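A quick aside before the break. I want you to see a complete sequence-to-structure record at least once, exactly as it would be stored in a machine-readable document. Don't worry about memorizing anything.
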Amino acid sequence: MIRAGWLSHGKMVIYPIRNDIDEEGHQLINWVAKIDTPEHLERDCNRRGKLEDFLPAFADWHFDWLDIPALLRNAEVILEFPMVDQDPLPRWSHGRATLLGDAAHPMVPRGSNGAGQSILDAVARAKHRTATSTIEAGLAAYEAERLPATAAIVLQNRANPPDAILRAVFLRTSDKPFKRIEDVISQEELLAITGGYKKVAGYTLEDVARRMA
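That is the input. The structure line, written in tokens, reads:
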């Protein structure tokens, strides 16, 4: 998996999906190109993307192990996704109906937030349903646990998202090449950034162990 760059000048996330997809042994790759833009603000996650809208930002991304412009040009399908979220809601539940996942707390799509928090919602919903005497009581307990937790994540993503490490490196290097990450940011800082986000998102080892107990 590759994560490089920053939103102001162009950021890439690249990862393999499947090996040997044809007789020539090609690999199926998914890539995400991110860049700040005042345009394309519609919340349409099915709009076809245009290569010319973002390719110039990556035109010189040639490495001896990967040609990024060639990778982008050879994509079979390009879709445009807005990097948007929604302000936290004051409540999710009404009677015997409630919200869960992206319907309850749309987040900026970083770090698998949507999928991860939806799973935690489902776990909490099941737990409180079996621990309470009525559906309404179960929904109230579920909302009391998950609404403030997910609201904190929405707000955290606006200030210090899980990829804040890339932002720190970009700002310190002015997007210039470097040989050793340790010359730019220390291991202690890296752990502090990732650990801080894990605590807010509920992804620490202690959080996982508590849920499995």
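Two observations worth writing down. The chain has a mean pLDDT of 90. Strands lie at 2-6, 10-18, 28-34, 47-48, 79-80. We'll return to this after the break.
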